[in-house]
User: Fold this.
Amino acid sequence: MPRVAVIVGSLRKNAYSRLVSRVLIASAPDHINMKLVEIGQLPFYNQDLEEAQPPEPWLAFRHTIKAVDAVLFVTPEYNRSMPAALKNAIDVGSRPRGQNIWSEKAAGVVSVSPGAIGGFGANNHLRQSLMAVNMPTLQHPEAYIGGVAPFFDSNGELINDDTRAFLKLFMDTFATWIDTVRKK
Assistant:
């Protein structure tokens, strides 16, 4: 059974990306074990800390990610890029040199925005970083969830059937991608 970490780029409790991540987890095929992995507790990466005693949150995060087969990133867009917390998590996981925990794990990217272009900038900047840390990333379908605000009711439940169908398709395709990467 593939183990998948779900990392949400926004730290906000009721962020749209967090709401979408819950739908993605619920839409995953039954043979996939999905687990939300929080990144808000990670101190900013600083190599000086690595040389002394790395902070415990870094060590715990690295241990958690090492144990999974794939990572699904769900991110908002901040100033045409990914949030600092998400970039920091990637940096923490790729260090120290020669101990990159991301390498060869299947990746999927979903960007979420109340704006019309669905976090295109964040999605593509994140993909650049994933390429640099050697994560084979699902290319299609691309997942830009734009104009997301009216897709959820006041309880945070998805009420847009087209979006639900697309997220299900994305998860089915991502499951196949995970199996493909694991077989290599």
